[in-house]
Give the backbone structure.
Amino acid sequence: MLIVSSDPLQCEKTDEIARRLGLQTIHCASLTDARGCIEKQTFQFVLCSDDLPDCNLRTAVSVLTSSTGGAPIIVISHLADWDAYMRALSAGAFDYIACPPEPIEAERILRLALAQNPPPRRASRTAA
């Protein structure tokens, strides 16, 4: 899972939830940094802050969606209101988590994202 946020507290809280689900995380502080990570590695889904220093939310969601091949993008925000939620969804986000995240709700959203984009299955070995 990729976390794109310049807020250390946002990263820490979402990282704790991801660890409980057995997910590994990589952190990037900007969209520019995230693009570099995506070129090197595949991610099942991305958590993206709505206040990145180098772009707006609509641009971030659009670029991350196309760069990851359509992996779910979950917006994380300090705004816990309906308008912010609707802006995220209209930008193309899979879902929205208000920070600090409610652990149960955040876990539910992360599980839904995993279900939409499950990890690739390993090829099983068969005797010839």
DSSP finds five helices and five strands in the chain. The helical segments are 8-20, 31-40, 57-67, 82-90, 103-116.
